[in-house]
Design brief:
Blueprint lengths: L1 H8 L4 E3 L1 H14 L4 E6 L8 H14 L4 E6 L21 H15 L8 E5 L1 H16 L4 H4 L3 H8 L7 H16 L3 E5 L3 H13 L6 E5 L25 H9 L3 H11 L4 H12 L4 H17 L1 H15 L9 E5 L3 E2 H7 L6 H9 L3 E3 L2 E2 L6 E2 L2 E7 L3 E8 L1
Parallel strand pairs: 2-3, 2-5, 3-4, 5-6, 7-13
Antiparallel strand pairs: 1-6, 8-11, 9-10, 9-12, 12-13
Helix pairs in contact: 5-8, 8-9, 10-13, 10-14, 11-13, 13-14, 15-16
EC number: 6.1.1.1
Protein name: Tyrosine--tRNA ligase
Subunit structure: Homodimer.
Length: 397
């Protein structure tokens, strides 16, 4: 029993109420009946990044204890838009956007979860049939005063920022998911605490045993400051190429590395503590970072790809060219260097290309380019931007 509780608590922010969870674990152990553990994700983007896998890792740990994991895709709630952490109304997604994003979510989550032991559900299953009458009945089970206790709403109300009525429906519908699924435990990030507690409240309203809630920290992104987010550009996507994933993991700070170990690694806490002690005793922290980068890269791409990514990184660090380069064909020779960089996908804009040239960050066939007005003649070239971006560009007239 203690080991099951230790697995639950590893890296978690809060477990509420702990006594109720212990009682659920004891009952499950005594009866052999697995507990129902739920994670809901709204398919608001087409890909999952490592920040999402913090809760997925916890699900996998609990799954390995023999419990039933429910991976809930919020196709209905996505059409409302989660107000969590927002100071403005979140634009709802269209049904087409939701469908396109949901198609990749479970496939990517299955790289962490065991698909054979995962129950996949969509909350439109019970939310659509609820109808207007059912929605009104559901809304009667919570007060506006309690809803306004939520920080997002309180702050926006005080600031005079509009709050749409439909935003009140989001936590209600997420809470109703727990009723429909009869969940024993719901996981989420720390920003989801209000919504998770709503599930407990509504289960009690509907005469069910209330779920416990477990919140996980929000993973800090590559910048070491903000939470990992695609919009902030500080993320590592789990479908990124192995070489890019490995290099990004090596770029995190020596301090942040230990948080990543706790929240992302499948190593035991004892192993991590021993590794940390070695580093504190003088071992190069890069050794530990390499082990982490290889573990995470291997999880999503396989051990061979992780080994190849390590070799590729070492080659680049020595100033070498990767064995495999993206092949790009362009026309319009002679072509201005900024336009070439942009059309080859090596920079986002001509302005960025100009800045990189000024910083001596652009090379063609190993030669640093300093002339921002350079026009590149027809031919095939290895073009390098910064330390990690390469392309073999074939330019024709």
């Amino acid at each position: 029993m203690q080991s099951a509780l230790d697995v639950t608590l590893r890296g978690c922010e809060e477990l509420l109420p702990r006594a109720e969870w212990v009682a659920k674990l004891q009952r499950s152990h005594r009866t052999g009946q697995p507990l129902r553990i739920k994670l809901g994700l709204d398919p608001t983007a087409p890909d999952i990044h490592l920040g999402h896998t913090v809760v997925l890792n916890k699900l996998r740990q609990l799954q390995d204890l023999g419990h039933t994991v429910i991976f809930l895709i919020g196709d209905f709630t996505s059409m409302i838009g989660d107000p969590s952490g927002r100071n403005t109304t979140r634009p709802p997604l269209t049904a087409e956007q939701i469908k396109a994003n949901a198609e990749t979510y479970y496939r990517q989550a299955s790289l962490v979860l065991d698909p054979a032991r995962t129950e996949i559900r969509y909350n439109s299953e019970w939310s659509d049939p609820l109808g207007a009458r059912g929605l009104i009945a559901l809304a009667s089970r919570y007060t506006v005063a309690r809803m306004m206790e939520r920080d997002d709403f309180t702050n926006r109300f005080k600031a005079g920022t509009p709050i749409s009525v439909h935003e009140f429906l989001y936590p209600l519908m997420q809470g109703y998911d727990s009723v429909a699924l009869q969940s024993d435990l719901e996981l989420g990030g720390t920003d989801q605490k209000f919504n998770l507690l709503m599930g407990r409240h509504l289960q009690q309203e509907y005469g069910q045993e209330p779920q416990c809630i477990l919140t996980m920290p929000l993973l800090v992104g590559l910048d070491g400051v903000e939470k990992m987010s695609k919009s902030k550009g500080n993320y590592i996507g789990i479908s990124e190429p192995a070489n890019a994933m490995y290099a990004k993991l090596l770029s995190i700070s020596d301090t942040l590395m230990w948080t990543y170990y706790t929240l992302l690694s499948f190593r035991s806490e004892a192993d991590i503590a021993a590794l940390k002690a070695e580093v504190e005793a003088g071992r190069n922290p890069k050794d530990a970072k390499v082990l982490l980068a290889k573990e995470i890269t291997a999880r999503f791409h396989g051990a061979a790809a992780a080994d190849a990514a390590e070799q590729d990184f070492q080659n680049r660090a020595r100033g070498g060219v990767p064995d495999v380069l993206p092949e790009v064909s362009l026309s319009g020779a002679p072509l201005g260097i900024s336009a070439l960089l942009r059309q080859a996908g090596l920079v986002a804009s001509g302005g960025e290309g100009q800045r990189l040239i000024e910083q001596n960050g652009v090379r063609i066939d190993g030669t640093t380019i300093s002339d921002k007005a350079l026009r590149v003649e027809a031919g095939t070239y290895v073009v390098q931007v910064g330390k990690r971006k390469f392309a073999r560009v074939t330019l024709v007239a």
